[in-house]
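Example (one chain per record):
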Amino acid sequence: MMIIPIQPLPNQTMQVQLAGQSCSLNIYQNAYGLFMDVIVGQNQIIAGVLCENLNRIVRSLYLGFVGDFAFQDTQGSSDPVYTGLGSRFQLLYLEASDLSGQG
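Predicted structure:
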């Protein structure tokens, strides 16, 4: 598991290399919550996933993504909002070994 550095901005896109995958992560806030897209190379893995505390983002092995993501509230159990990104709300990358035995 590793922490992906993010900023307290309502809309952000970052490039990160994870498990040999060139990933583009889009994180954006709207009136309904914080959402995330994951793109590997030119392939969209998931889009518009609602970010909730400790709830995996990708969730499904058949999508072909190695690992997963989750947000963690370091001060409680609230769902993330952009104002606390990078401090209260951390973005975790869960490696394949962290997910062994999970579907």
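Caption: The mean pLDDT is 95.
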